[in-house]
Amino acid sequence: MLRLLLLLLSLAAACQADEDFPFRNVSLPWPDRADDLVGRLTAQELVQQLAKGGGGPFGGPAPAIARLGIGPYQWNTECLRGAVKSGQATSFPQAVGLAATFDTDILSQVGRATGLEVRAKHNDFVAKGDYGDHTGLTCFAPVINILRHPLWGRNQETYGEDPHLSGVLGAAYVGGLQGNATDRYLLTGAGCKHFAAYDGPDSYPESRFGFNALVSQQDLEQTFLPQFRRCVQAGSVSVMCSYNAINGVPACANAQLLREVLRERWNFTGYVVSDAGALEFAILFHKYFADRLSSAIGSLRAGVNLDLSACPYESCVVFEQLSVALNTSRISEAELRAAAWPLFLARLRLGEFDPPALNPYSSLRPDQFIQSAAHRALSLTAAQTSLVLLKNLGGFLPDGLIKRPASAWAWSARCPTTCRWSTATTRRIGCRSLSSRCCRRSRSDSVLIKSVTRPTAQTAESIALDRIRPRCLR
Length: 474
Ligand SMILES: *[C@@H]1O[C@H](CO)[C@@H](O)[C@H](O)[C@H]1NC(C)=O
Ligand SMILES: *[C@@H]1O[C@H](CO)[C@@H](O)[C@H](O)[C@H]1NC(C)=O
Ligand SMILES: *[C@@H]1O[C@H](CO)[C@@H](O)[C@H](O)[C@H]1NC(C)=O
Ligand SMILES: *[C@@H]1O[C@H](CO)[C@@H](O)[C@H](O)[C@H]1NC(C)=O
Prior knowledge:
mainly alpha
């Protein structure tokens, strides 16, 4: 009895101590709470928080900080079209199909359904003490890269080739994932990716881990950045920097992109996470840095907050080197603290440090949402709405069969109805996601088609760019 009493007393004392930290004071504004929390971390704790962005057993989770009552946190979570990679979940149409709905309501509803499943699963994972990859709340979605080259292997993850459409749909998905901006808590955190110009075809068929996108300033501003600006304006808490280099500088070491454009021009206050292994690949593929120490320093300085690793063995995580950098005075503790701030702001806004009773999302359970009737129905509606009739040639379909509202067709007016890629492989990519601009742009490209080879799975990899181009038919 006495032991129980002592235990209760010490628990009460622990709770009391927790409540005393201003970062747990729910009456204070988020930034003040983040200031307090980050101000309490030691330099070595800060390094661990920046280094453990997930990716395998050595990449994450971000470790617990017991003396402050802070638990582990897993940053690595996929949400492209449902709660991906974490067991049972409702499967929604692939992103390029979602884009073919031309319907922001559907994108927002799919985002919300995904967010509910991710949150419910997270509650369940945490209750079981599981902090492995894909158990967190911070989504690596949406993908808003531009479909530029028909053979790029990730076209299906995008919203197509139109920067405007990609931006509008991406913003809707962010809103669905995160919830209403006026709500106290985030349902989940969104993360727009991959920033930027991660679309080929420059340097194709080089590896996506090491290609250098040669992009003119005009193309960057018109094609590769607008949708990211919209995503940031929609409130996304995170942006993922991409594997490729842009005009010679790897995206995750690109201060012009991550600081000047993202933070200074667009006022982004969230965190930048590296694509998995990007900080290592800046050494291995780009040969931009000589070693992990210089990659760690260069990437942090350029504006990366979190290292998502692809590290296959212990302590090869690039940001772990920040400890060496600090001890040899090559970076300051203040820089580490500034980099950790948006990470903890996101965790605060997700409700991690608040009493669960205040957060309506903390009681969500998987059995309420995972493959629920409502989510299955939404998935079906999304799939049905994604079907696109390019052209009803010769009145092939009987009258009255086409029920799509006129608003959807407003989008297609941007597009000459029969622009399509001239290979069998890519004919399936509908014109609705190819604007007239793509035809004009391609026609003026200096590369000209010699003969169209029908690519097989085997030859697709090796087909040179100059043998593929879009053909505009009347
Ligand atoms: C929480 O913050 C409010 C507002 O500053 C303050 O009035 C209150 O005393 C704080 N609560 C605790 C327990 O420190
Ligand atoms: C967001 O919240 C505001 C204020 O509570 C409310 O008026 C608005 O309808 C909400 N929007 C959505 C999309 O739920
Ligand atoms: C960023 O903030 C500045 C200063 O508040 C403002 O003038 C500017 O319009 C903002 N930019 C964007 C893209 O919101
Ligand atoms: C840096 O110094 C701290 C404190 O002396 C020490 O704990 C840590 O192991 C050092 N880091 C490295 C990589 O040597």
